[in-house]
Write a structure and sequence with these properties.
mainly alpha; two-stranded parallel sheet
Length: 111
């Protein structure tokens, strides 16, 4: 019985290490391409991964993982499920946009 117990422990330990190796893969949502986002994140298919990249190009880098909820089709549950896989670092600055006309005049600075 001792050899069987040792074999069982070895198998369980191997599975534990294999599971942590798969969970260790991370993706920087500010720099990754759609294929990488699709491969690493759970419940994110090719179309949602492409939507993340398109949103990032239009609005600039994500400042937090929670900002992924601004992408259509991605909810907070999906973000929470992937929290340990998401890295938010660097990335392209926001696209410069012309401010909307409000009709207000700028206030002159006092001297």
């Amino acid at each position: 019985m001792s050899k069987f117990a040792t074999l069982l422990q070895t198998i369980l330990l191997s599975l534990l290490f294999a599971g942590s190796a798969f969970a260790a893969e991370k993706v920087n949502i500010n720099t990754a391409d759609a294929a990488t986002i699709d491969r690493v994140l759970l419940n994110i298919g090719a179309s949602k991964a492409q939507a993340i990249v398109a949103y990032r190009k239009a609005n600039g880098a994500f400042k937090s993982a929670e900002q992924l909820t601004l992408v259509k089709g991605i909810g907070l549950k999906t973000v929470e499920k992937n929290r340990d896989r998401i890295v938010v670092a660097g990335g392209a600055p926001a696209v410069a946009r012309k401010p909307a006309a409000t009709g207000a005049r700028p206030v002159a600075a006092k001297r």
